[in-house]
Amino acid sequence: MTDIGIVDEIITKFIFNTCRLGPRLSKHRLQAIAAYVSVVNARTPGNEDAEYVLLISGSVAEFYIEPMLQHVGDVDIMRYVNTGLAVPRGHPPPTQLPAEFHNRVQVYEIIDSHLPGYVYLELRYLITKCTDGDSYNDVEHKKRGSSFILRRGPKLGAGAGLHGPALLHLYKHRLPLDLVRCVRCLSWPPQAADWTSRHRKYGWPDSTTVDCVVNNGCDLVQVAHRQCRQDEWMSKLQWRLSFSRAEIALINSWTRVQQIVYHLLRVIMKTEKYTESADNSGVSTLSNYHIKTLMLWACELKPQSWWTDDLSFIRICVELLHTLAVWLTESRCPHYFVNNCNLVDQSFALATTACRLLLIDDNYLSSWFVNMYIRQSVQICPESVSRLFDDVSTSTKLQNAVSAVVHWRQKAMTTAVYHEYYSAVYTILFYVDAYSVGERLCNFWVNELLKAADVRFCVYFIAVVYLHVVQKIKSGGLTKNLLKAVEVTTSLAVPSNCFNKRTFSVVSKVITLARECQGQSMNSSNCNTPELVELLQQSAVELLTTFRQLEARDLGSVATIVTTDFEALYAYKYGDYQQCLQLSTQNVQTLLNAKPIAHVLAFPEFVQFMDDDIVSLTALTLIVNPKCREYGGYISITQLTLSLYLMTQCQLKLRHSVTSLARTLDYIEVAQRRIKFHVTLNQLTLKLMERKLVTCIAT
Q1: pTM for the whole thing?
Q2: Is 3.30.460 the CATH number for 40-253?
Q3: Contact partners, residue 360, CB within 8 Å, separation at least 6
Q4: Could you read off the pLDDT of 67-114 as tens digits, one per residue?
Q5: CA-CA distance, 433 to 427, in Å (whole number)?
Q6: Fold of 436-558
Q7: d(Cα 436, Cα 575) in Å, to the nearest integer?
Q8: Domain ranges of the chain
Q9: What does the alpha-carbon distance between residue 325 and residue 358 come to, in Å, rounded to a whole number?
Q10: 81 phi, psi to nearest 5 deg
């Protein structure tokens, strides 16, 4: 491969065409949400009234692309207590606070240290929410000079360790979780005041993005400067200004090319071990934050044409790596937000790293991309495709191999969308079922789903919450927490146009009745619990039918999806067997020769519509394999099996003819051949229906 220009073009097309725009509710985002839900109810030591508020940050929140090569290594979550708040020095205490804050909040003043970007926090005020409104009154803390907040060491539990300032949790089937303690600051810090007003020749970030960044304020993370970690006093009291919120907003405003370049630079730095110490000498190394800083400056200082004209990822990466080398040669890496803050010093192996970076040229990087990046990427391809890279000694062979990968990737994306979709559906149901829903979790879920800009999952979540509340009412009675969950979920979702007119009408009745019940004693006769239960179930079915319609619209090319399975279940639940039979028969005729077929997850939220036979079979499945709930496919029932079950039950209850029952038995035999043997609940259900029909026909 001697023609570097042709190879450059092949590599660029490969990276661009295989790096898709990831779903907003990606598998990594879902893992972050799962981590959030699993820790959000933790209480703070010594203050049972306080609550943690969490922010998903890091690469999960920053990237909206999904390359073939893994680009997310862990889940980063920042956690602050809602009883604490920081303000810049000299600022008055706030009189209004966001809803997540407690009624009593300690306000800390940010005191500059001798190192830019690092500060101390001194307790200055205690503010208390007025009983007759949303404003806060303040009392000044009198012990000035002796109330600096200490950085508490994280409490290490089972499976936890330290990763810099983060508490690291390792999981068997999920990405590691980095949980960082911080203190919230609602104001943009004066240490970064120049960032908002500096001249930007090429218009990035634009004024709207700048305003968004400034309005989000910042956070303070419990970590001392590397030069101060051996000092007994400063190592315990120093905090670092964190601009994670700003970085998420800025990186999400990057173009697709800029996001890809950021990903490529991170891979290069990690693969070539620029971010690891060569020995145990304690010499500091570069990190992803240095690459992020390099990219932020490049996006501001380079015109858009530099990124797009004659697009070449090799050219862009080489130039940016050389810029980093110059920085290291001059012992500087300017912080993007804070003036006079240098992210490197003589503790870094500057000269050696700078020399290595300067040796990188177009020839070296083109060879690196072929041998390291592309070869690693194609490991997920079928062997027939990946084997083409055994010989890419000419540009023609490389082109043919790359073309095969691009073709496979684009075809695989369709299937990936289908699996990602059902992974999201399962995750939502699993975590609503596993954790008792309340105002905080419902707020979080709906906001996250609205961020994903996916109405389907918003509709699905509301339906699942309604059914979850019904389950809780039946097992433990109506509580104010359950009513609040219903009201919050519905009220947050109504403005998002999640509902059609018919569904909106039913859901509006739910809000009205929930508010009426909230104003009554839970045991009051005026609080009509049976009416609320029935209305919640009816609303859930309306929403699930809307969800199926959206699902069929978006995934119809991948799978055959019928839209009336939940309507049929509801009709069966309330004894309308003729309606249930009509819907189920239509569904069976549609699904019998379709592949693949959508599922209904057999969780309590949905099982409440099913009869004792299905409940018993679900329980039997769980007894045989208690871990099956960890894997959605093993505790689910296909739309075809469910429709056959409802069809059979209705025919038996309506005393249909032997001919009609025999035809249904034929359908069951077809379904048994089609459905995999290890899908336990499906096989058990089909076996039960077969036995019932054979017995009935024989007698």
Answers
A1: 0.84
A2: yes
A3: 318, 321, 322
A4: 998 888 788 889 898 999 999 999 999 999 998 899 999 999 999 998
A5: 10
A6: Four Helix Bundle (Hemerythrin (Met), subunit A) (1.20.120)
A7: 31
A8: 40-253, 436-558, 563-699
A9: 6
A10: -90, 140
